[in-house]
Amino acid sequence: MKKQEIFKHWPTMLLGFIVAAILLVAVFSYQLNQNEVAVVTTFGRPSVVTEPGLHFCWPYPFQKIYRFDKRIRCFEGGAGKLEETSTADQHNILVGIYVTYRISDAKQFFTTFNTTANADSQLNSWMRSAKNAAFGTYRFNEIINPDAKELKFQAIQQAILKDLQQRTANYGITIESVGINAVQVPQTISEKVFARMIAERKRIADKNIAEGESEARQIRIKADSERTIALADAEAQAKEIRARGDAEAAVYYAKFKENPELALFLRQLDSLRTVLKGRTTLILDTDTVPFTLLKQETERKISAPVKKQD
After folding, report:
1. Cα separation of 103 and 193, whole Å?
2. For the chain, which terminus, N or C, has the lower number of CB atoms within 10 Å?
């Protein structure tokens, strides 16, 4: 009867053994992911485990497991992120930066900070100091300027990176890069900056306008000078042409004085050419000058003797 009762309850017993085995595995082992590194403390003495997979351990309080992500982490500082700092020429600005870092020595990191939150708190303080020191060595117009060539962001980032790498060298952290998130100016400063920028742009505009007006005056003076010279040359040529015309006209006038009738006849011909230019029909008295020439020509033809044909 006892054996039959035992075999009757074997499924329940088997399930109990499986559950007990799972509990033992859960208590005496831990799982490490590919992207993690673990610090195992045995009675407070730390050791590092880097291999992923299932690992054996003693339960608490004999051993305690601390897991850390060994991937590169981006950290932007405290909750405010944007913090006020001063430039070399004593202008206040608001600056936000970020760093990327990874845990390079888990044992040293754990011994120093114990948790990632403690590390972030300390790193935030270092970032603030490094940021203030770096921005404090540059003038305002090297940080905020419409001309990208005047900006010194690259040099500032390198200075902060070098400073943080030196500060974290013995804390199990490796700073990979530093970047500037944002640069702003306070409201009171921005009004002064805008006013100065407007004044600067107005000065440049006034300078360009003055240079343009000066160049325009030079162009007008040159054009007026060339115009005066051209008019003088044209006037001289006109006087020369009039002189030649007057000389030639004097010759004709002398001829006309010798034969006034020829002069009158030529003038009448000129008048006819002018009046009868093109196809023109006129009804005028033939006694009217210069049409008397037509009458004289007709009378001449009538009075001329007719030649007899053989």
Report:
1. 42
2. C
Which letter, b or e, does each residue of 277-290 get, where b requires 16 or more Cβ atoms within 10 Å of its Cβ? eeeeeeeeeeeeeb
Residue-level pLDDT at 240: 85
Beta-carbon contacts of residue 80 (< 8 Å; ≥ 6 apart): none
CA 55 to mean position of chain CA atoms: 57
Bridge partners (DSSP) of residue 69 are: 36
Which residues does residue 67 pair with via DSSP β-bridges, in sequence order? Answer: 38
Q: State how far Cα 148 lies from the chain centre.
A: 9
Nearest to 156 by CA among 175, 140, 180: 180
Residue 214, token pair as written in the block: 């000066």
What is the C-alpha separation between 40 and 108, in angstroms, rounded? 13
The pTM is what? 0.55
Ramachandran quadrant class, 302 (left: phi over 0; alpha: psi -120 to 50; beta: rest): alpha
Query: What's the half-sphere exposure (Cβ side, CA atoms, 13 Å) at 227?
Result: 6
What letter does residue 305 receive in the DSSP assignment?
P
CB within 8 A of 181, min separation 6: which ones? Answer: 76, 81, 96, 97, 98
**pLDDT 10s digits, 234-272:** 888 888 888 887 777 777 667 666 667 666 676 777 776
Please state, in angstroms and rounded to a whole number, the distance separating the CA atoms of residues 113 and 122.
9
Please give the structure tokens belonging to residue 90. 């004593």
Phi/psi at 98 (5° precision): -140, 160
